[in-house]
Each structure stands twice: as C-alpha cells, then as structure tokens.
Amino acid sequence: MTDRQPLFIGGEWVEPDGGHYPVTDPATEETAGWAPEASVAQARAACATAREAFALWSRTRPEERAAVLGRAAELIRGRLDPYADLARAETGATTRTARAMQVGVAAARFRRYAGVEPAEWAVVPQVNAAGPMGGAGVTGALAVRQPVGVVSCITSYNNPWANPAGKVAPALAMGNTVVVKPAPQDPLSVYRMAQALEAAGVPPGVVNVVSGRAVAVGEAVVASDDVDMVSFTGSTAVGRGIAEACGRDMKRQLMELGGKGAAIVFDDADLGSAVAGIGTTFSFYSGQICTAPTRVLAQRAVYGRLVERLAAYADRLKVGDPREPDTVVGPVISDEHRARVEAYVELGRKEGAVLAAGGERPRLERGFYVSPTLLADCTNDMRVAREEIFGPVVVVIPFGDEDEAVALANDSEYGLIDYVWSGDTARAFRVARRLRAGGVGINTVSRNMEAPFGGFKRSGVGRDVGVYALHAYSEVQAIVWPG
C-alpha cells in the first residue's frame, strides 16, 4: 500500500479514475491520508465483478466461509494498534474508543459470524384433503435460507470499522458478495478491512470497496442492475432517497437511520446512573451516534437536580486531543459539521432553551471541537428537541406523570432507541412496552449484541445484529414434497 490508497475491485488494487482527495484529521486539521475517488464506471464494475463472484461464493460450504471470517478477525485483532491509530486520525475518536469500540468491535463481529448456524428448518407437515391440486395426502416442507445476492453496503462516518463489519461479516457468512461504499470523510479504515479479508483468503470479487466524495458513486452502487440489496447506515434524508430507488426495482433493503433517543427519568431513578448514561452523549464519538439519549424527559420532582448534575458532568469532561489518555471528548468529523452543531445550539437559545452547560467553542488552536452542551427548559416542539443534531448536545424537557412521559417520548419522527430510568422495575418494563422504538434500555445505555437492532418510524427498516443479521442478508425459500 502507498500513501495514495487504491480502490479494491475484483481482488485487485486499482488506481481510481478520479485521482485522490485528502482525508482530514478532525483533531489536527492535517491530512491523515489520501483516499481514492472512484468513477461511476468503476463503481459499476465493482458491482459487476461481485455478480460474477456470487455464483461460486454462494455455493461454498458455510464452514469455508466461516473460516475466512475467523481468519479475518484474527488479522484485525493482530493489527489493533495501527488500525486504531488510523481510525483515530480519520474520525477524531479517542484512542480508547478507536481501539475498543471501532477496531475491537469489528474484530468481534467477524468472529461472531465465523460460526456456522443452521440455514434450514422443518415445517410442520400438513394433511391435505383431495381437491383441484391433487388427491388427499400429507405434504412435508423445509424452509431454507438462501443468500440475497450482491449487497451494496453504504456505511456511515462515525464508525468506519464496526459499522461496515456489521454488514460485511453476516452478508459474507450467508453467501452474499458485497460492494462497500464507505463514507467519504473516513474511508481508509475500510480499505484496511479489505486488506485483512484478502489476506484471510476471500476469493476475488467477493469483497469490493469503492469510495469517493461524488454523490454519483453512491448512486451507482444503489442503482446497478447487478445489486440485489442495499444495506445503508446514515441520515434519514439520504435513506429515503435510497429506499425510493430500491423500491423502483424491488431491491431488498436494510436501513439504519437517524435517532432522537428519549431518556425518561422518573423521580425514583438512580440519578447517578441516569447522569452517567445520558452523559455518554457528550463523550462517546462526541455525540455523533444515532443511539444517544439526546432528549431527556425528567419528572418534575427531580428535574432541577438532574439538570444540575448533568451540567456538572458536562463541565468536568476534558475536551481536546484524542491521543491524550485523559481526553474524553474529541472533535466532531469536520468544520462543516461543527458549524451545523453550533447553529443548533444557537437555535435552541433563540427558541427559549436555557443554556445550562457549554455553548462556547473550546479554546483550542486546531481541530473541530464542540463543547459538551446542555439545553434546559426545552419543550418538545422545539427544533432542537425534534431534529437529530448529531453532536455533544443534550436537551432536557420536564414531565408530570407516566402517561405524559410516554406521549412526549413517542411524539417524534424517530424511533431507534429510547431509555427508561426508574427504581420501579414493573413500571420501567411497562413504560418500555409503550414506547414506539426499536429498542429500549432500562437503567442502562449498554446493548446486548445478540438483540435485534433497528428502528421504528423514520429510524429505519429491518433488523440486524446477532442472528437477526443473518436473517436480514438472506431470503427464505420453501421446498415442499409429498409425505
């Protein structure tokens, strides 16, 4: 590999037709590397070669595919430090986050799908009476999971390791071939993943990676006639356009889109636990994560104390160089995104929110930093409470009783993950069942990595993670015979 990264198409490292563009380190504003700008023709070629490779790869034994994924997991784990260094430089993530939550999770996901799970199951035999279709008899049936075909994996910038690994690993395990289109801000890590898969023995054409800043490149890997499914993680606005394109050709789709997670904090909650959980919004990826509890609904009896403690938590966080071991909050991805987040903070103040913490740009010479910001005394109709800011910003809204909390939480276009903090276990589970969200955390922001992940409403379509990802990247075929 050179400093100027080539594309990966058909098992070959190919020079990009559009040359290279700089990938900027958000912490230093220096160039972290040079990413390839694919042409539309090269994007289409990647899809075509994935189609050619599908015939053979889909017929390999599941054990062979699992072995490749297992070797890839070990190769990624063995290069944890240099891979994490690159991820940190591309994304601005802290060293701890880059190691554990980016590269570490990617290796774990390849390891997870290196196991072989049953792809077929018997269906209860059916007794049929005589009729137009034949005489009386018993029919047996078998349901079989078959690969979808060629999958376009379009990934987000906030985690260039875990997000594509969560798509590529289960897709390959099921016998699909893939074309990965990484986010333009940080594509270099995805090419390192392709290197690991190549070294692990993935056949030519099974994995392809094409990048570029031009929208036309992404459109090409969605629209290609060689593509059977699109798996996308990103904004709801972009996801809607992809879904429309898929709908025209009846392509399968898996959409993990935006979120505006409501965190309901009841008056009997452990406030220390709630503050620590909600506080991850400020620090984890600098709030650039769709699962963050960014919309806090606090029962009035604890509202003042919760705001005070959240503000103190935000003020204590060290903002700065992600390479420093005591840094908690790194930069956001770009200068443009920082401007967007800051505009939302100013909008919140104009809407009547009270600035309880943050609100000013950190005094650092370089880097795209945003201070952890808490907006109190908000109402649910404010734009800062309704729109995804995707930065270290939390809004707090008071509520009276359980019914009002549920109504406020559900009054959103999004429905990815909500949270409930309460000392009353029965109430917490009762409220969780009433929330219109794909997931609910009770007294925790942790996730079970075998639990289905996906959203209601405009937060997405479909479910992945664990065995649900194997379902997502497969079609179900019924085989019937006379008993």
Which characteristics define this entry?
Aldehyde Dehydrogenase, Chain A, domain 2, 483 residues, 22 strands, 39% helix, 15 helices, Aldehyde Dehydrogenase, Chain A, domain 1, 7-stranded mixed sheet
Summary of the model, kept short:
This protein has helices at residues 40-57, 62-78, 80-91, 95-112, 162-173, 188-200, 215-223, 236-249, 271-283, 300-316, 335-351, 383-386, 402-410, 425-434, 467-472; strands spanning 7-9, 12-14, 20-24, 31-36, 120-128, 137-147, 150-154, 177-181, 207-209, 229-233, 252-256, 262-265, 295-299, 354-357, 373-376, 393-399, 414-415, 417-421, 439-442, 456-457, 460-461, 474-482.
Give a written overview of the molecule.
Keywords: Oxidoreductase. GO terms for molecular function: oxidoreductase activity, acting on the aldehyde or oxo group of donors, NAD or NADP as acceptor. The protein is an alpha/beta fold. It folds into 2 domains: 7-257 and 459-482, Aldehyde Dehydrogenase, Chain A, domain 1 (3-Layer(aba) Sandwich), CATH 3.40.605; 262-450, Aldehyde Dehydrogenase, Chain A, domain 2, CATH 3.40.309. 39% of the residues lie in helices and 22% in strands. It has 15 helices and 22 strands. The chain has helices at residues 40-57, 62-78, 80-91, 95-112, 162-173, 188-200, 215-223, 236-249, 271-283, 300-316, 335-351, 383-386, 402-410, 425-434, 467-472, and strands spanning 7-9, 12-14, 20-24, 31-36, 120-128, 137-147, 150-154, 177-181, 207-209, 229-233, 252-256, 262-265, 295-299, 354-357, 373-376, 393-399, 414-415, 417-421, 439-442, 456-457, 460-461, 474-482. Strands 14-15-16-13-12-18-19 form a 7-stranded mixed β-sheet, with helices on both faces. Strands 9-8-7-10-11-21 form a 6-stranded mixed β-sheet, sandwiched between helices. It has a 3-stranded antiparallel β-sheet with strand order 5-6-22. Helix 2 (62-78) crosses helix 6. The longest helix is centred in the first third of the chain and has 18 residues, at 40-57. The chain is globular and about 70 Å long. The N and C termini lie far apart (59 Å). 53% of the residues are buried.
